[in-house]
Specification:
- 38% of the residues lie in helices and 25% in strands.
- It is α/β, with parallel strands linked by helices and 206 residues long.
- Helix 2 links the parallel strand 6 (90-95) and strand 7.
- The longest helix is centred in the C-terminal third of the chain and has 18 residues, at 152-169.
- The two termini are 39 Å apart.
């Protein structure tokens, strides 16, 4: 069933343990690239939680000391207290099966706090179906690599600055993996399982 004009889709997850590491470096010189020492000073770690509006290509992020139910619900409140989400008929929250938002208890908790919010879990071991993971891959490449920060404040400032830039220029991801592709993949897996039952027994035993 297609989405109505007053319905939204949010993909959400956490990027855990972003570390603040300070690497001694040797500045670039003539015919020599900058050199980074393999040793580093530790400045702690934080979790980056993000909610991605898949239709608007808009990101809402926050930094927390750790992941968990309360940090995730803080992210939900950050989004759901704003328009158009506060007055939407339904806001679908796509999440994986991580402990911060696992199972029926998480769905009930979300709906109790925001009656128009609907929690939808991706299949187990298929968190890659959640589009926020694409955004996190961009963050990994463009924000936290190389991981060279003096402290956690610098990490948080850089993440927030990237959010602002991303929201000013981003376009929705063009999702190319269709339901037909998924059906084909599942059919191939079924055929493989039927042809190699010994492998299935091994994985079940493990």
């Amino acid at each position: 069933m297609p989405l109505g004009p007053d319905e939204c889709v949010i993909s959400a997850d956490e990027k855990t343990s972003i570390q603040a590491r300070c690497h001694p470096t040797l500045a670039p010189g003539q015919a020599r690239a900058m050199r980074v020492n393999h040793t580093y000073g530790r400045g702690g770690a934080l979790a980056y939680l993000a909610a991605y509006d898949v239709l608007q290509a808009k990101v809402f992020g926050r930094c927390e000391p750790t992941t968990g139910i309360d940090p995730f619900m803080n992210l939900v409140a950050q989004v759901m207290s704003q328009e158009p989400y506060a007055s939407s008929k339904r806001v679908f929250w796509i999440v994986d099966n991580g402990s911060s938002h696992r199972g029926k208890a998480a769905a009930d908790r979300l709906t109790a706090a925001f009656p128009n919010a609907v929690l939808v879990h991706t299949p187990v071991h298929a968190s890659w179906l959640n589009q926020v993971e694409i955004f996190f891959s961009v963050v990994q490449r463009k924000v936290v690599t190389p991981n060279d920060f003096t402290d956690l404040t610098q990490v948080g400032d850089r993440l927030r600055a990237f959010e602002d830039r991303y929201n000013a220029t981003a376009q929705p991801f063009q999702w190319k993996f269709t339901t037909s592709d998924l059906d084909d993949l599942l059919a191939r897996l079924d055929r493989h399982t039927a042809d190699h039952p010994e492998e299935s027994s091994f994985y079940l035993a493990a």
